Each structure stands twice: as structure tokens, then as C-alpha cells.
């Protein structure tokens, strides 16, 4: 039964085999059809965003299983480092959780406690849903899931506050933390160098420090990217869990570009639509293409 969970977690497999490189996408809009459509594009994992996305608890449950049904890892970003939020995501069947808003080593240790079953943590047992996101045939029992979850689920922490950056080397050493994941926009805001175009030298230095801390502790590193071009740059730097695109950027960008081509005004109209429709992430995509 350990093999069932190990094989089903495509993100964990990618991180621990070969180059360790994995690419994922970000889902911010609700809907199982959307979940499956994104998952079928070839990504190793899909982040179901319950922090900034328009996705409620019941919708998260359904998207987790929709993504898993495509043999892709559903990863849930919870809104905050709260034990009940960890429980809801993992009980839904998430193959891993991305947790924002950490400030200290104690925050990281507390997170591990809520994400792990005893004797390593304090996670409660009883969800009838978790198993289905790993085994559609029904061969994995609840007890099988409980006995194998600790070693097969991923606990991913976002490093995005100044306080977390200041102690990132110690956070990286916390047993049970698998990946240090960077949210560049919030990180830039919180260290006093907000992203207004290109990343500042100070933000680039902070990103490099987080990567180094993960590598030194034998942990994996990840980063949120607004486009494939940017994602490739960070893959070449050594990051391993890399987001490529989100639905709220992909949909308006592609639709605006297609309309602009149809009107014969490709370029100017697309740039204007991207700027208005896709907010900050899409504006960075436009800048990267220049």
C-alpha cells in the first residue's frame, strides 16, 4: 500500500528522481472541468489556490480528486498556517500543502505537528475522502492511508515574510518540511523592495539566499513564476518545484491575443488587454516578452 501512495504522488516522484525538476500550474478559478483540463496539459502538479483563488472548501475537495484522476498531484495552498486548514486540505486527499505566512521556526514546527499523524505529529484520523485521491480502485483503506501518509505527503512552506527570510536557514532544517517555496511578490513587498517590473538586486539576493538554505539543508526549493520563460530561468538556477502559469493569466492572455490576431492588431491590443485583464502577473509576462 505504501507503493500505491508513493506512485500516485507525481510531484514527490519528480522531486526525488532524476534531475528533481517539476513544473506545475496554478488554479485560482473553481471547477472540476477546469481542474482536469489544466491537469491534462502535462504538468506534474496543480496548485489549488485557496488563499488568493476563488475556491471554497467544497470546491477544493472536488478539484483535488479531479486533478488526481488525471494522474497529477493536487497540491492545496491553504489561506494561512492554521491547523484546521491543514486538516481540511489533507483530509480532502491533497498530495501536499503549500502554507503561506510563516514568521518563525516555531511556526514551521507547529505546521509539521498538524500535518503529520502520531507519533510524529498530532493530525487527526477519520477522513473517508483522502484515499480516493491516491487510489481510484478503492484498494487503499483508511488505515493504509494513515500508516503511509507521513512519508508520502509533502509539507511545503512559503518564504515570503521578512521574519521568515531572517531565519530561513533554521526553517529549512526543521524535520518534516520538504520544500521551501518562494512567493516573490509578497517577499519583495515584505523586505521593502516591491516588484514594479524587474526584480530588484535585493530581492534577487533574498531569492538566492532561500535557494542556498534549502540546498544546504537537503530540502527542495520552489518558486512561483508568471510565465514559461521565467520558469525556465529559475529551473536553470536550480529550483525544483516551479509554477509555470495560472488560469487567471492564461485565459485572458490567450483570448486577447487570439482576438487581436483576428482584428489584425496583434501586439498593441493584446498588450492592452493583458494589462487590464490579468493584473500584475500578466503585466510581467508582457515585460518579459519585450
Automatic annotation (TrEMBL):
Tell me yes or no: is RNA-binding among this UniProt entry's keywords.
Answer: no
* Annotated InterPro entries: Aldolase/citrate-lyase_domain, HpcH-HpaI_aldolase, Pyrv/PenolPyrv_kinase-like_dom, Pyrv_kinase-like_dom_sf
Q: Does the keyword Metal-binding apply?
A: yes
The record's Gene Ontology cellular component field reads:
cytoplasm
Report a single Gene Ontology molecular function.
metal ion binding
Ranges for domain HpcH/HpaI aldolase/citrate lyase? 33-244
Query: What is the name listed in the Swiss-Prot or TrEMBL entry for this protein?
Result: HpcH/HpaI aldolase/citrate lyase domain-containing protein
